[in-house]
Amino acid sequence: MFGFGRDKTQMVGEGEALPGRIAPIPTAKTHQLTGAPLTKTVPPGQEAAMFGMGCFWGVERLFWQIPGVELTMVGYAGGFTPNATYEEVCTGQTGHNEVVRLHFDPARVSYDALLTAFWEGHNPTQGMRQGNDRGTQYRSGIYVFSDAQKVAALASKEAYQRALDAKGLGKITTEILMAPDFYFAEDYHQQYLAKNPNGYCGLGGTGVSCPVGLGAR
Is 16 strand, coil or helix? Predict the structure, then answer.
């Protein structure tokens, strides 16, 4: 059932994916740090963004520390299995990525600034892994909610690739897609590093600054 022996760095086909379930997986009702309701509903005046950068514990902490990010939540997206559990995602048989979805106030923080945090916060050249974390759930991804976000994401990828090329580093493997369905992760994953300050954080960047928004050529 749990894909023993399969290569977890190879994307599962839709017909091979686990079936999942109709009912959502139970999750936290409120944000551990702010007490705000955990919801996918975006308040007026805010926008949504979603990123995959490896283990979602450290990624969520990266973004909740940015002024203007009003709400963060972790979950699974980009695969085939509805309402998958963490254990199912870890088999590589759901196709999902570990992602952080956030709501931000564009009057306080720009989408370009979030993209800079994304590129500089991990290594986007590693394919289906981040560091020692290997599997399709650890792939680099930007999941956009509008055409404007897609244009910005693609431009930022080009800019960062030039910066990586200048340092002799590899090619970006980040997927940039319209935002797929987001499924909340279990309660204990939400704001994990607020609950466990000394817990595992797998974030590690390339050390190369990202010239997002500068129009560099």
Answer: helix
Q: Which residues are catalytic?
A: 55
Q: What is the pTM for the complete model shown?
A: 0.95
14: Cβ contacts below 8 Å, ≥ 6 apart: 80, 95
DSSP H helical segments within 82-191, as ranges? 86-90, 111-121, 147-166
Mean pLDDT of successive 10-residue stretches along the chain, which has 217 residues: 68 97 98 98 98 98 98 98 98 98 98 98 97 96 98 98 96 98 98 96 92 53
Query: How far apart, in whole angstroms, are the C-alpha atoms of residue 134 and residue 115?
Result: 23
The one-letter amino acid at 29: K
Contact (CB, 8 A) for 164 and 172: yes
| CA gap 148, 111 in Å, rounded | 10
Closest CA to 146 of 179, 113, 123: 179
| 160 residue type, one letter | Y
Contacts of residue 146, Cβ cutoff 8 Å, sequence gap at least 6: 47
